[in-house]
Amino acid sequence: MNTSPLTVTLIANGDLRISANQNCWDEQNKMEQSLIGVIESMGGKVERAHDYDPVEKHGFISSQRQGMDVFAKINRTSPIIVAEAVWQYSHHILAGLISHEGPILTVANWSGKWPGLVGMLNLNGSLTKAGVKYATLWSENFETDSRFQQKLKEWLETGSTTHDTSHVVPYYSGKTNSRAKEVANLIAEDLDTNKAIMGVFDEFCMGMYNAAIPDELLFQTGVYKERLSQSALFAEMQTVSEAEAEDVFSFLIQRGFNFHFGNDDATDLTERQVIEQCKMYVATCRIGDSFGCDAIGIQYQQGLKDTCPASDLVEGMLNSTDRPPVKNSKGAVILEGETYPHFNEVDECCGLDALLTKRVHNALGQPTETTLHDLRWGDADRSGTTDDYVWVFLISGSAPVEHHIGGWSGSHGYRQPAMYFPKGGSTLQGTAKPGEIVWSRIFIEDGKLKMDLGRAKVIELPEEETQRRLNETTPEWPIMHAVTYGVSRDQMMARHKANHINVAYAESAEQADLCLSAKAELAQKLGMEVFLCGTKSDGSAY
After folding, report:
1. Paired residues of 198 in beta bridges
2. Neighbouring-strand partners of residue 426
3. I need a surface site. Which of 227, 339, 411, 450 has the fewest CB within 10 A?
C-alpha cells in the first residue's frame, strides 16, 4: 500500500451478528464517504483496507480472524483510521491495532440511532487497557464541523491530536470529611477480612476487552471472581417449576408493571417468553446464593440469546430492592429487601463498581439501587425546558424500577428487537426520575485499576421530547436524561474509557456529594487511582 504521509488506511469494524452488520451497513457507508470527502478536501488520500462483501452484504470486519487477515496486509507504519457508525466488537481488531506502529485515529459519528460513539468509546477503553497509543474524534457532521476538521487536520499532519481534559483532577484524601472516611475505612476493613465474590456467567461479552478485570488487579480490592457458565444457568432454569415462575409473574402484575403482549413469538412479546424469564430470575438468584456471590453478571448476548429469551427483565429485577422473593434450598429468602447487584453484559468494571456502591450507599442510608447505562448519545433539549446539554444514558434492556418515574407502574415491558434476540424476552423500560446522581467508571490503564467519579442531575423532560430521544435511539430500552456538572460533551468524550457509565441516586445534592467522597476514599484505599471529574452541583471545585 501507498505509505505517503497523507495516505490514510481506513478500516470499519463491525458486529459478530450478520443481521446487525447488514442492517447498519448503509449508514456506515454514508459516514465513510463523508469522512473520506473531508480528508480529500485537505489533500489527503484514503485507501480502504477491506472490501464490501457481496455475499455477506456488508463491508465490516466481522470476526477476530478476519481482522487479523486484514491487518496482515496493512503496512504497519501507515496512518490508520478506525471509522465507526455502529456498535463494534473491539477484539476483532485489537490484535492488529496492538501490533500497528503508525498513528491510530478512532472516529465516530454522533447519532443515537447509529451508535458509533458507543462502539468507539468501547474501542478506546480497550486500547487504553492494552496500552495502545491512539487519538480520537467525533462529530455530528464531518463536513460542517470546524472543530472536527481542525483536529483532523492536526492528526493528518502530526499523527496526534488532543482534547481539553481540565475537568479531571486527582482525588485528594485530605479534603474528605470524617464521615466519608469512616465509612470507607469500615468497608475496606470488611473486604480485607471477609472478601466478596462477583459471579460471572461467562466472561467477555461482545468483544469488550476493556470490561474484563485481570484477577491479579482485582485481588487488591478484596473481591474475587466466581466463574460460572451460562449453560449451568440454563440447566438451573429447567429445575424451576411453573408455579414458582407464575409467582414471580404475579408479583410483577400486582405491582402494576405494564407488559405489551402480542401473539406472534417471532415479533411480539408473549407471556410464554416472560414465564421463561421468571425462571431465569429464580435460577440466577439460587446459583448466586449457592456460590455466595455478592454481585452477578450475565453475558447477555452470545449463546444464551439462542437458547432462551433475553435476560433483561431478570437484570432489572435483580437491581431493584422491591423484587420478587426467591427462597434458597434452606427455605430462606435470598437477600430479602435488598438488591442483588447485576452488571449488564458481564462488564466486571461495572460489577466491582456496583458492589462498592451498594455498600457505600447502604452505610450512608442512601438508595442502593444502581445500574450501568450506555453513554449512548446527547443532544440539546428541544422542548425549552433547559439550556443545559442533556445526555441520553440508555441501558440495553433494563434498569431498576426505583430509578423510574412511577416505579413498577411507570415501567414497561417490550419485546427485545428480533434483530438481536430471536427468542424475544421483555425489557424493563422506563424514564428515569429527576434527582441527584453520582456517576462513575472503573477502567484499566497502565496496568492499574483506576476510577473516574462525577456528579450529575437527572431532569424530567416533556413526554414529546422524551419520545423524540427514544425514537432516535432504541425505544424499548430505559432512558435517563442526565446533565453532568462541570463536564461538557467533548470533555466527557475525551476522557471516558468505556461505553458504559455507572449511576446511583442520592436523596439530595449534599448526600450525593458525600456518597461520591466516600466511594472515592474507598476506591483509593483499595488501591485504585481515583479522579474526580467536573464540579459539585453548586459549581464549586473538588
Report:
1. 225, 295
2. 415
3. 227
Mean pLDDT of 201-217: 95
Q: How far is residue 496 CA from its own chain's centroid?
A: 11
- SS3 state of residue 356: helix
**Beta strands 168-170 and 529-533, pairing class:** antiparallel
Class of domain 173-533: alpha beta
Radius of gyration for the alpha carbons in the chain, expressed in angstroms and rounded: 23
CB atoms under 10 Å from CB of 298, counted, come to 27
Residue 472's contacts (CB-CB under 8 Å, 6 or more residues apart) are 111, 112, 113, 377, 379, 392
The full 3-state SS of 477-533, as one line of letters, equals CCEEEEEECCCCHHHHHHHCCCCEEEEEEECCHHHHHHHHHHHHHHHHHCCCEEEEE
The DSSP 8-state label assigned to residue 139 in this structure reads E
| Domain spanning 7-158, CATH architecture | 3-Layer(aba) Sandwich (3.40)
Residue 467: φ, ψ to 5°: -65, -35
More confident residue, 448 or 203: 448
In this prediction, residue 5 carries a pLDDT of 53
| Low-confidence winner among 292-301, 376-385, 424-433, 437-446 (lowest mean pLDDT) | 292-301
Degrees, nearest 5: CA angle 189-195-200: 140
- Residues recorded for the chain: 542
CA 463, 468, 474, 476 dihedral sign is: positive
Contact at 8 Å (CB) between 125 and 213? no
Contact 532, 454 (CB under 8 A): yes
CATH 3.20.14.10 in the chain, residue ranges: 173-533
Supply the angle between the helices 91-99 and 116-130 in degrees, to the nearest 10.
50
In SS3 terms, 8-45 reads as: EEEECECCCCHHHHHHHHHHHHHHHHHHHHHHHHCCCE
Q: Which three cell numbers stand for residue 214?
A: 485481570
Say how far apart CA 50 and CA 74 lie, in whole Å: 10
pLDDT of 304 reads: 87
DSSP strand E in 237-294: where?
258-259
| Cα four-point dihedral sign 273, 278, 282, 287 | positive
The CATH 3.40.50.10940 portion of the chain extends over 7-158
DSSP string, 311-338: SHHHHHHHT-SS----B-TTSPBTTTTS
Rounded-to-integer distance, Cα 1 and Cα 73, Å: 8
Alpha carbon distance, N-terminus to C-terminus of the chain: 50
Say whether pLDDT at 439 is over 50: yes
> Mean pLDDT, to the nearest integer, of 152-171?
97
- Residue 394 has a pLDDT of 98
Looking at 77-214, list the stretches that DSSP marks H as alpha helix, in order from N- to C-terminal side. Answer: 91-99, 116-130, 146-158, 178-194
The verdict on pTM exceeding 0.90 is yes
What does the pLDDT read at residue 303? 77
Distance in angstroms (rounded) separating the CA atoms of residues 505 and 199: 24
